[in-house]
Amino acid sequence: MSQTVVQSLYIIAFALFIYGLMGLTGPRTAVRGNWLAATGMGVAVIATLITEGMGNWWLIVLGLAIGTAVGVPAARKVKMTAMPQMVALFNGVGGGAVALIAWVEFRQDHGFEHEPAYVAIASLFAALVGSISFWGSNIAFGKLQELLPGRPIGIGKLQQPMNLALLVIALGCGVAVVAGGRSEWLMIGLLVASGVLGVTVVLPIGGADMPVVISLLNAFTGLSAAAMGLALDNTALIVAGMIVGASGSILTNLMAKAMNRSIPAIVAGGFGGTAVAGAVDAGDRTVRSTGAADAAIQLAYANQVIVVPGYGMAVAQAQHAVREMADLLRDKGVEVYYAIHPVAGRMPGHMNVLLAEADVPYERLREMEDINGEFARTDVALVIGANDVTNPAADTDPGSPIYGMPILKVNQARSVIVLKRSMNPGFAGVDNALYYDARTTMLFGDAKSSVGEITEDLKAL
């Protein structure tokens, strides 16, 4: 009877997981989807706790208390600009937890001495991938938080041979355990080698590729959890891990395609890093600046305006001001849309999350494939802190690091207004040719303040 109840609860949990995911397809249902998935996880936890043979309840309660005390305040207080860091960090914690569970299982089973081979293989796979995910996610967090330089950090041509050697060491330790090795140093060697591998794989990846890295490491954590669930015969871990692993893998592939880069090329060392202080040397090129009043006049007398949000909007927390400006323009009869590039910002869907927070109508958001054909018919394109995803060099300069990356065709609009603090390049560290285009004017300053000034001038027109 007890086993029947547990399995029934797991089925309910899985149904809630799936309905929760379905809810994440749009902002109107996303909150409900999150609550459904969270409820499903709560049901799965209860089912696990009532399983026969569960261990020390005091330790379990202590773990739940510590996790709640740390997780809830962190999630409630985090700023939207720091959401990518939080996602990377929380994802890494999941991978680290799986790796520790695998180590505990190794110790309790005396090196999997009396366990079937599949249990040992699944546990060791979970330990290896979980350790890579934990340490790699911490490096991604450090880069996004700017505790570490965003630029690629590596040792040149020796980087890939060193990574291969670390992988061979980790696999060798795993094979030795499966073959009958009982020394705990084999397990420690596997965890250390895979942990160092996680660090050395992510360090050479530049900041411009961080959204893809976060998604990839998320998939790794899911796969490690699923493998650990197989070893522990825990249905909830298997299903939840496979959902995370599959969705993360699909998202990683989609984002890599959006950048026209292969996943192996990104893992081998991506481009991009934090820009150095000071303006980029424009040479003989001319940059035209404008003011809020002139920008307001252009916007007020346009038929169609496309807003292109980027990380600069996130940093300035300008999404609410942008929505207010767009509402005012629509009251004046101007059609306003938002162009969303798949890798704008520092994590998958970053711009969608920010705009949803500001209650921007979802039907006004347009994906890159849908909006690019509209720029040629657009009177004004308003670029708010989006650098690399609007750079025409991706189409025109074969020598550019971002050449071939699909971009938003902002330069096809009749007029382009760019809101930026300075002429510094974006996270890829590449100068943007758009800023020197004859149809482009630059409105320098904090994005939130600039949009607020434009809005006040619009009210006066």
Automatic annotation (TrEMBL):
<feature type="transmembrane region" description="Helical">
    <location>
        <begin position="87"/>
        <end position="106"/>
    </location>
</feature>
<feature type="transmembrane region" description="Helical">
    <location>
        <begin position="6"/>
        <end position="26"/>
    </location>
</feature>
<comment type="similarity">
    <text>Belongs to the PNT beta subunit family.</text>
</comment>
<keyword id="KW-1278">Translocase</keyword>
<feature type="transmembrane region" description="Helical">
    <location>
        <begin position="33"/>
        <end position="51"/>
    </location>
</feature>
<dbReference type="Pfam" id="PF02233">
    <property type="entry name" value="PNTB"/>
</dbReference>
<dbReference type="InterPro" id="IPR034300">
    <property type="entry name" value="PNTB-like"/>
</dbReference>
<keyword id="KW-0520">NAD</keyword>
<feature type="transmembrane region" description="Helical">
    <location>
        <begin position="57"/>
        <end position="75"/>
    </location>
</feature>
<feature type="transmembrane region" description="Helical">
    <location>
        <begin position="162"/>
        <end position="179"/>
    </location>
</feature>
<dbReference type="InterPro" id="IPR029035">
    <property type="entry name" value="DHS-like_NAD/FAD-binding_dom"/>
</dbReference>
<keyword id="KW-0997">Cell inner membrane</keyword>
<keyword id="KW-1003">Cell membrane</keyword>
<comment type="function">
    <text>The transhydrogenation between NADH and NADP is coupled to respiration and ATP hydrolysis and functions as a proton pump across the membrane.</text>
</comment>
<keyword id="KW-1133">Transmembrane helix</keyword>
<dbReference type="GO" id="GO:0050661">
    <property type="term" value="F:NADP binding"/>
</dbReference>
<keyword id="KW-0472">Membrane</keyword>
<feature type="domain" description="NADP transhydrogenase beta-like">
    <location>
        <begin position="7"/>
        <end position="456"/>
    </location>
</feature>
<keyword id="KW-0812">Transmembrane</keyword>
<dbReference type="InterPro" id="IPR012136">
    <property type="entry name" value="NADH_DH_b"/>
</dbReference>
<protein>
    <recommendedName>
        <fullName>NAD(P) transhydrogenase subunit beta</fullName>
        <ecNumber>7.1.1.1</ecNumber>
    </recommendedName>
</protein>
<dbReference type="GO" id="GO:0005886">
    <property type="term" value="C:plasma membrane"/>
</dbReference>
<dbReference type="GO" id="GO:0008750">
    <property type="term" value="F:proton-translocating NAD(P)+ transhydrogenase activity"/>
</dbReference>
<feature type="transmembrane region" description="Helical">
    <location>
        <begin position="185"/>
        <end position="205"/>
    </location>
</feature>
<feature type="transmembrane region" description="Helical">
    <location>
        <begin position="237"/>
        <end position="256"/>
    </location>
</feature>
<feature type="transmembrane region" description="Helical">
    <location>
        <begin position="212"/>
        <end position="231"/>
    </location>
</feature>
<keyword id="KW-0521">NADP</keyword>
<feature type="transmembrane region" description="Helical">
    <location>
        <begin position="118"/>
        <end position="141"/>
    </location>
</feature>
